[in-house]
Design brief:
Layout: E1 6-10, H1 24-34, E2 39-43, H2 49-58, E3 65-69, H3 72-85, H4 90-93, E4 94-98, H5 104-120
Parallel strand pairs: 1-2, 1-3, 3-4
Helix pairs in contact: 1-5, 2-3
The structure holds iron/sulfur cluster.
Length: about 120
Amino acid sequence: MSEKPKFVMCICTGECPGFQSLNLWQLINYVRNELDVEYAIVHPQLCVDDGDRFLTDYIKPNSKYIIGACDPKMQRKMFKDAFASVGGDFDQQVISLDLRNMSTEDAMKKVEEAVKQTVSS
Ligand code: SF4
Protein backbone atom coordinates (compact mmCIF):
# COMPACT_ATOMS: atom_id res chain seq x y z
CA MET A 1 0.00 0.00 0.00
CA SER A 2 1.42 3.35 -0.93
CA GLU A 3 2.09 5.83 1.81
CA LYS A 4 -0.34 8.67 2.39
CA PRO A 5 0.87 12.27 2.35
CA LYS A 6 2.31 13.83 5.50
CA PHE A 7 1.04 17.25 6.44
CA VAL A 8 3.57 19.74 7.82
CA MET A 9 2.29 23.09 9.01
CA CYS A 10 4.78 25.93 9.42
CA ILE A 11 3.21 28.53 11.68
CA CYS A 12 5.77 31.31 11.13
CA THR A 13 6.77 31.54 14.83
CA GLY A 14 3.13 31.91 15.86
CA GLU A 15 3.57 35.69 15.81
CA CYS A 16 3.07 36.38 12.10
CA PRO A 17 -0.02 38.50 11.36
CA GLY A 18 -0.66 36.37 8.24
CA PHE A 19 -1.83 33.48 10.42
CA GLN A 20 -3.88 35.41 12.92
CA SER A 21 -7.23 34.35 11.54
CA LEU A 22 -6.22 30.69 11.56
CA ASN A 23 -7.02 28.40 14.49
CA LEU A 24 -3.91 26.22 14.22
CA TRP A 25 -5.09 23.41 16.48
CA GLN A 26 -8.50 23.16 14.86
CA LEU A 27 -6.79 22.88 11.50
CA ILE A 28 -4.19 20.34 12.57
CA ASN A 29 -6.71 18.15 14.39
CA TYR A 30 -9.03 18.27 11.40
CA VAL A 31 -6.25 17.20 9.04
CA ARG A 32 -4.99 14.36 11.25
CA ASN A 33 -8.45 13.04 12.15
CA GLU A 34 -10.54 13.64 9.06
CA LEU A 35 -8.24 13.58 6.05
CA ASP A 36 -6.40 10.73 4.39
CA VAL A 37 -2.90 11.57 5.67
CA GLU A 38 -0.22 9.58 7.51
CA TYR A 39 -0.15 12.30 10.17
CA ALA A 40 -0.03 16.05 10.66
CA ILE A 41 2.63 18.03 12.49
CA VAL A 42 3.46 21.65 13.28
CA HIS A 43 6.86 23.32 13.02
CA PRO A 44 7.39 26.86 14.32
CA GLN A 45 9.70 28.18 11.58
CA LEU A 46 10.94 25.95 8.79
CA CYS A 47 12.96 28.56 6.92
CA VAL A 48 15.68 29.19 9.53
CA ASP A 49 18.66 27.07 10.59
CA ASP A 50 16.87 24.71 12.96
CA GLY A 51 14.09 24.32 10.38
CA ASP A 52 16.71 23.24 7.85
CA ARG A 53 18.19 20.80 10.34
CA PHE A 54 14.72 19.44 11.05
CA LEU A 55 13.94 18.97 7.34
CA THR A 56 17.27 17.27 6.68
CA ASP A 57 16.61 14.88 9.58
CA TYR A 58 13.00 14.30 8.68
CA ILE A 59 12.60 14.03 4.89
CA LYS A 60 12.50 10.64 3.25
CA PRO A 61 13.17 10.57 -0.49
CA ASN A 62 10.02 8.57 -1.31
CA SER A 63 7.47 10.30 0.91
CA LYS A 64 4.92 12.89 -0.19
CA TYR A 65 4.46 16.04 1.82
CA ILE A 66 1.87 18.77 1.94
CA ILE A 67 3.43 21.86 3.46
CA GLY A 68 1.13 24.57 4.74
CA ALA A 69 3.06 27.83 5.10
CA CYS A 70 3.71 30.90 2.94
CA ASP A 71 4.11 31.58 -0.79
CA PRO A 72 4.84 28.30 -2.68
CA LYS A 73 7.62 29.97 -4.71
CA MET A 74 9.34 31.03 -1.50
CA GLN A 75 8.86 27.58 -0.05
CA ARG A 76 10.54 26.05 -3.07
CA LYS A 77 13.45 28.45 -2.76
CA MET A 78 13.84 27.81 0.96
CA PHE A 79 13.30 24.04 1.12
CA LYS A 80 14.59 22.55 -2.14
CA ASP A 81 18.20 22.26 -0.95
CA ALA A 82 17.16 20.33 2.16
CA PHE A 83 15.28 17.85 -0.06
CA ALA A 84 18.20 17.58 -2.48
CA SER A 85 20.64 16.98 0.40
CA VAL A 86 18.87 13.73 1.33
CA GLY A 87 18.41 12.56 -2.26
CA GLY A 88 14.87 13.88 -2.52
CA ASP A 89 13.21 16.24 -4.97
CA PHE A 90 11.07 19.09 -3.70
CA ASP A 91 9.14 19.40 -6.99
CA GLN A 92 8.18 15.71 -7.01
CA GLN A 93 7.46 15.31 -3.33
CA VAL A 94 5.78 18.46 -2.14
CA ILE A 95 2.51 20.24 -2.59
CA SER A 96 3.08 23.62 -1.00
CA LEU A 97 0.11 25.62 0.14
CA ASP A 98 -0.07 29.29 1.04
CA LEU A 99 -2.36 29.31 4.07
CA ARG A 100 -1.77 32.92 5.07
CA ASN A 101 -4.68 35.30 5.52
CA MET A 102 -7.23 32.53 5.50
CA SER A 103 -10.01 31.54 7.81
CA THR A 104 -9.64 28.14 9.48
CA GLU A 105 -12.45 26.77 7.31
CA ASP A 106 -10.85 27.94 4.07
CA ALA A 107 -7.49 26.50 5.13
CA MET A 108 -9.20 23.16 5.91
CA LYS A 109 -10.73 23.13 2.42
CA LYS A 110 -7.42 23.96 0.78
CA VAL A 111 -5.62 21.15 2.59
CA GLU A 112 -8.46 18.75 1.80
CA GLU A 113 -8.14 19.53 -1.92
CA ALA A 114 -4.38 18.98 -1.78
CA VAL A 115 -4.85 15.61 -0.07
CA LYS A 116 -7.33 14.55 -2.79
CA GLN A 117 -4.82 15.67 -5.41
CA THR A 118 -2.08 13.43 -3.97
CA VAL A 119 -4.47 10.48 -3.77
CA SER A 120 -5.58 10.85 -7.40
CA SER A 121 -2.06 11.48 -8.77
S1 SF4 B 1 8.61 29.08 5.82
FE1 SF4 B 1 7.19 30.76 5.41
S2 SF4 B 1 5.54 30.46 6.89
FE2 SF4 B 1 7.30 29.29 7.61
S3 SF4 B 1 8.41 30.67 8.98
FE3 SF4 B 1 9.34 30.88 6.97
S4 SF4 B 1 8.27 32.62 6.08
FE4 SF4 B 1 7.00 31.92 7.79
